[in-house]
Amino acid sequence: MKKIALVLSLIMMFGLASVGVYAEDTAGTGNGTTGAEVTAVVTCMQTAVETRDTAIIAAVDTYTTTVKAALTARKTALKTAWAVADRKERRTAVMTAWKDYKKAIQDARSALKTSKKTAWDAFKAASKVCKPTKTQDMTNQSADNNL
Residue 137, SS3? Predict the structure, then answer.
């Protein structure tokens, strides 16, 4: 019986402790900010999000265009390589086609990664100017790693 009471006490203690951690001031009051200040922060953060996500969308568009071009070039190069009569030359041409493709994909991924980092860095700088009291937006940066 004492074990059950202890477990229930611990559950209640941790449950009540987490309420304070996850509580948010959704109205922006209680910390000395006015409604106009809250509105300014919201507008500033919306602009920062718009800028960041527009940049990431453009980077993904560039990435997909580059990948399509690399695939098209690979297809053409491989078809041409397979038409070579000499076996050694054909092998060299096939290997070159794949090497060029891999390099193009690697460069595209690197450019996408750099663009995403730049967009997030700009967002972090812009959000500091906004001075939000709390933001959970920056904790989700890793979600873009799968792009």
Answer: helix
| Residues 95-147: tens digit of each pLDDT | 999 999 999 999 999 999 999 999 999 999 998 888 876 666 666 777 777 77
DSSP state of 85: S
Q: How many Cβ atoms from other residues are within 10 Å of residue 79's Cβ?
A: 10
The kind and range of the H/E element at 109 are helix 87-130
Q: Is 10 exposed, middle or buried (0-12, 13-18, 19+ CB in 10 A)?
A: exposed
Residue type, 5: A
Cα distance between the two ends of the chain: 53
Q: Which amino acid is at 98?
A: W
